[in-house]
Amino acid sequence: MDRLSVDHLTGIKELTKNDIEIIFKTADAFKEVINRPIKKVPSLRDITIANLFFENSTRTRLSFELAEKRLSADVVNFSAASSSVKKGETLIDTVNNILSMKVDMVVMRHASPGAAKFLAERIDAKVINAGDGTHEHPTQALLDAFSIRERLGKVEGKKVVIVGDILHSRVALSNIYCLQKLGAEVMVCGPTTLIPKYIHELGVKVEHDLAKALEWCDVANMLRIQLERQDIKYFPSIREYAMQYGLTKEILDNLSKKIVVMHPGPINRGVEITSEVADSDQAIILNQVENGVAVRMAVIYLLASKINRD
Amino acid sequence: MENQVILNSKHFELTIKRLCYQLIENHNDFSNTVLIGLQPRGINVLTRIKEHLELIIQKKVLCGNLDITFYRDDFRRRDIPLIPSATNIDFVIENKRVVILDDVLYTGRTIRSGLDALLAFGRPEDVELLVMIDRRFQRDLPIQADYIGKKVDTLSSERVSVEWREIEGQDKVVLFTPETNG
Fold it and tell me: How close A40 gets to chain B, by Cα (Å)?
C-alpha cells in the first residue's frame, strides 16, 4: 500500500509501521531535492497551510515553514503572542476563522495534550501536530528515527536509550512509539522523579545509571531538561543533574563501542551534553535538523495528496 | 485483453542500435551531452542505450536518472498518491545538451513534468527527447520526440508495454487491446 492510513498526523500512536515506511521513502526523495541547486518542487502550489503556534518554537516552526515553501505551498503564520487568543477567543473559533480564509492544512503546536486530535475531529482541514503539551511530537520522532536509519542503515533491532526528562517530554513518548513500531528496543534513563511511574507498561526498559544505559545502547537520545514545564523541583540543581546525567566525552570514550548521540534541540551545552560531545563526529544533531525538513516535506506531501480537490 | 507483439526481441535490438547511431549523428563524441532517463521505465531505455553507445564510441557517456513525481500535474487527482523514485543527477546541466529518454510517449504530460524537473539542475543548451514507442494521435500537449524507436497508432483504450529481458525476461513491445463484445 502506498497510501497513509491516516488523514491527519496527530500522533505516532495512530500510525502503522507501513505508514512510517512510506513517509521515510518519500523523505528520501525530498532529501535529494533539498540538496539540489534549486531546492523547490511545485507539488503543493495550490495548497495553503497555516502554521498555528500557540507555544514558542524556533526550529520546528522554521523547519515546517521551509518544508512548506519548498513544496511551493502558500504559508500563513500565526503565533499566540500576537493574536486574539489573548483576548479570550477559543481554539475552535480561532481556527475556524483562519479556515474561512480557505486554508487546506493546519500545523499546530499547543500547550494542551490532545489539542491536535481535538482539532482534527472538528475541522475540515488536514491537521499536523507540531507538539501538543507533554503528549506527542510526531514529526520529531519521525526525523529521529529517519536519522538513525540513515546513520545505522536500519532501525529494526537497534537499541535506543532516551535520557533525561521523560516525564515532561512529548519527544520521548513519540520516539518510544515510533522506534517500537520499527522494531527497535527502547530504554529510558533519568532520575526517578523524571521517569513516569507506569512507563514500563509501554514495553520500555528503565535504567537510572547513565553509564549502564549507554553501555547497553547503539543510540543515545539526550533530551533537554524542560524547566518551563516543571512546576516543582524534580532534582536538587542543574549542576547535580549534569553530574549524574550529563553526557561527557570521558563517558563516551570509556564505552566499549562507538554509539550515536542525538539531541532534539535546543541544547543546553554543559547540562545534558557537553560542547565536546555535541560537536563530535558521534553526534548527528545537525543531520537531525536537515532531515527534519525532508521528513516534514514528506508528511505534508502525503497528507496533501488526500485533500479533495472539489 | 488480446495482445499483439509489435516489436520482437530481434527488432528491439536493431531499434536500440539505430537510436544509438542517430544520437551519434547529432552529438558526435558526447563531450557536451548528457542522457537523462525518466523514472521509472525510462531508466531501462537509458541503461540499454548507454551500454550500446559506449561500446560504439568507446568512451563513457554522462548519465542521470530523473524522478518527476513532484512535478506532475495530476497530484491530488489520482486515487493513490505517487511515491517517488530516486533522482540521481550529480552534475549540473548548465549549457549541456540534454537528451531525455523514456519508454512510451503518449499524452506528453510526463515529458512536460520532466522538462520542469530538469530546470532544477540548471539551464541546458538544448533538450531532445528519445522514446522507444511513440503513441501518436493521443497527445494532450504539443510535445514531439526527436528520436523514435517505433511509431504506433493506438486507441486510448489500448495499452502499450515495453518489456525488458532484465525485468520481464524478454525484450519486446506488446500492444494490449481490450476484447470487444460482439
Answer: 8
Whole-number pLDDT of residue B111: 95
Give the mean pLDDT of chain A.
Answer: 91
Q: How confident is the model at residue A185 (pLDDT cuts 50, 70, 90)?
A: very high
Please report which helix (H) or strand (E) contains residue A215, including its range. Answer: helix A210-216
With a cut of 0.85, is the ipTM above it?
no
Q: Which residue on chain A is closest to B73 by alpha carbon? A: A43
Cβ pair B70:A301 closer than 8 A? yes
Query: Out of 3.40.50.1370, 1.20.920.10, 2.40.300.10, 1.20.1250.20, which CATH number does the structure's domain A138-289 have?
Result: 3.40.50.1370
φ and ψ at A231, to 5 degrees?
Answer: -85, -15
Give pLDDT tens digits for A74-133.
999 988 766 666 667 788 888 888 888 889 999 999 999 999 999 999 888 999 999 999
Residue length, chain B? 182
C-alpha cell of A18? 507501513
Structural class in CATH, domain A12-135+292-304: alpha beta
Whether A87 is catalytic is yes
pLDDT at site B42: 93
Per-position DSSP letters for A70-101, written without gaps between them: HTT-EEEEEEGGGSGGGGT--HHHHHHHHHTT
Q: What is the enclosing helix (H) or strand (E) of B116?
A: helix B109-118
CA distance A119 to A128: 10
